[in-house]
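Students often ask why we bother encoding 3D structure as a string. The short answer is that it lets us treat folding as translation between two languages. Here is a chain of 399 residues written in the first language.
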Amino acid sequence: MTAIARRRAAILGVVAALGTGGAAVALGQAPAASAAVGCRVDYTVNQWAGGFTADVKLTAGDTAWSSWTVTWTYPGDQKVTSAWNATATQAGAAVTAKNMSYNGVVPAGGSTSFGVQGTWTASDAAPTAFAVNGVACNGTGPTGAPSSSSPSPSPSPSRTASPTPTASPVGCGGAVVCDGFEGQTGTTPSGAWTTSAPDCSGTGTAAIDTSVSHSGGRSLRINGGGGYCNHIFVGTSADLASVQSLRYVRFYVRHTTALGAGHVTFVAQRDANDTNHDLRIGGQGSALQWNRSSDDATLPEQSPAGLALSVPLPTDRWSCLEFMVNGTNGTAQTWLDGTDVPGLHDDGVKTQDIDSQWIGNGTWRPRLTDFRLGWESYGNQTDTLWFDDVAISGSRIGC
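And here it is in the second language, the structure alphabet:
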């Protein structure tokens, strides 16, 4: 399999699949901090020529789980196409499946299940080793199985990956910016946050909201208007000099309208090495997208294969969005709810449909000088967004 094919496989994004028709397997495990004695992974597969579905049942041992991450490696050439009741990533043959917001808690002796669907060509052989929260169930788990605090899948071996420090629990540590808007006393952003419309303004508005929040009692609300000349942003006045060359950002976002086909932006950062043009994050083609305002280059590319490597931004719930920009080597990485998004990962090696347009002649070396949250619409799309628990640091904060 080529490097491009392996990297494309990583998106299918949502959980993994396994096994041979009708097989059911139960696996136990030794004592561990998160996956306890008696842990079981049971799965049943319904297989047909070129495809399968599988039911995967997890049973906790004598210790409850507050969340779970299951890992395994395919011995065959299975590829995930859809899933339910879990999210997952696939890097080559390695799979990582994680709980949804509603099924992460499993009491001692309790069970939860998720389902998967996938395809195969040469072999649908079942995996024989699983790990729960990084600890093997009944034997040696997949090599390098990530723990619950290491959400990013291992990169394809043929690609040069950007460093991915282990994420810490929710919080800010020594971040340059650590703000949940709890210090705001009025409805208009003030103090460390300033409202602006850099190019032109319209009906868009920004306000401090006390009725919706991820934590605490306040959030930043953006009412985003449609039409090109309808920009509204709220930027931090914090000194970001220490994170100009290497920047990690974490924030929680909630919005009401699914990303559409047109180009929109909800994060903007001025790049001093690109004549102060904005480096932007938003959506296009109904999926998350990076965009450089200087040349309109996108990450991933605006091809069907490229867009398939990104993901939509969920509506009507809080999502944790993280990203890293390294101006020293010109790389970038993005995580949604702790999971790496392959199409939003520029590792410095050109890959068709992902970052070949973005890298261009190989001289992209951003130096970011500010940070703004808000809304730009280059069509008629409108949206209402809330932002909360913003952190900007020189190392990864995590969700």
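Translate back mentally: Residues 29 and 355 are 41 Å apart (CA to CA). Keep this in mind for the problem set.
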